[in-house]
Amino acid sequence: LAKTTQPISMDSYEGQEVNITCSHNNIATNDYITWYQQFPSQGPRFIIQGYKTKVTNEVASLFIPADRKSSTLSLPRVSLSDTAVYYCLVGEDDKIIFGKGTRLHILP
Amino acid sequence: DTAVSQTPKYLVTQMGNDKSIKCEQNLGHDTMYWYKQDSKKFLKIMFSYNNKELIINETVPNRFSPKSPDKAHLNLHINSLELGDSAVYFCASSQVGVNQPQHFGDGTRLSIL
Q1: Which residues in chain B are contacts of A97 at CB distance < 8 A?
Q2: N vs C: which end of chain B shows fewer Cβ within 10 Å?
Q3: CB–CB of A95 and B45 under 8 A?
Q4: Number of neighbouring beta carbons within 10 Å of residue B107
Q5: Are strands B87-94 and B108-112 parallel, antiparallel or unpaired?
Q6: Per-residue confidence (pLDDT) for residue A2, from 0 to 100
């Protein structure tokens, strides 16, 4: 089983900021937190990765509190094309385990 | 340039047949993977190879046999196909290390009649 827990689905509107929170209470000291995005009929695509505090790239921001037991993926000003499944992962016994992800649906 | 490419994209065949799916990556990565995504969209790792050596072999029937002729290729051969093998199979690659971002192909949709 994946070490992460995230909402099954979320709805939002175009132009809004979307925050998806993931719980990983048993994260190990050497685990990084990685987020992937998957569109229908495509493979998952790496979005962002972090270890602690905040990481930002051209696509998203990742907020990680000091205890690292959770993380929040922030998507600024979403558009219809951001409709996808978002996976939060941490390393586990030398491999990555994908959970069921969060199905994000952006409405016009 | 396609980073991770899989062929074929679609595969429709009958129960009992043997089929292969090919995967190639041009990213220079040392690690390659095969995943299975079933109808419930749950993505499960099947195998991981590091520089042509098997690293991870999850609980997969021995009808599934991965083969890595070189570190840029990881093919998946499936014998005696069963109805439950219907799924989308994804190939991926990464640098060595569990925290390295993985690059996925677009999948092969296998349908067993």
Answers
A1: 45
A2: N
A3: yes
A4: 22
A5: antiparallel
A6: 59
Are A98 and B44 inside 8 Å of each other by CB? yes
A1 touches chain B (CB under 8 A): no
Chain A CB contacts of B55 under 8 Å are 94
Question: Chain B: nearest CA to A106, how far in angstroms?
Answer: 19
* Interface membership of A40 toward B (CB under 8 Å): no
What is d(CA A50, CA B9) in angstroms, rounded to the nearest whole number?
A: 33
DSSP string, chain A: --S-B--SEEEEETTS-EEEEEE-TT--TT--EEEEEE-TTS--EEEEEESSEEEE-SS-EEEE-TT-SEEEEEESS--GGG-EEEEEEEEETTEE-----EEEEEE-
Give the C-alpha distances (Å, rounded to integers) separating B43 from A7, B9, B17, B36, B71: 17, 17, 24, 6, 23
- Output DSSP code: residue B37: E
Weakly modelled stretches of chain A, pLDDT under 50: none
pLDDT at B1: 63
- Mean pLDDT over B71-98 rounds to 94
User: Hey, what are A58's tokens?
Assistant: 């051209």
pLDDT tens digits for B45-83? 898 988 888 887 777 899 999 999 999 999 999 999 999
Amino acid at A41: S
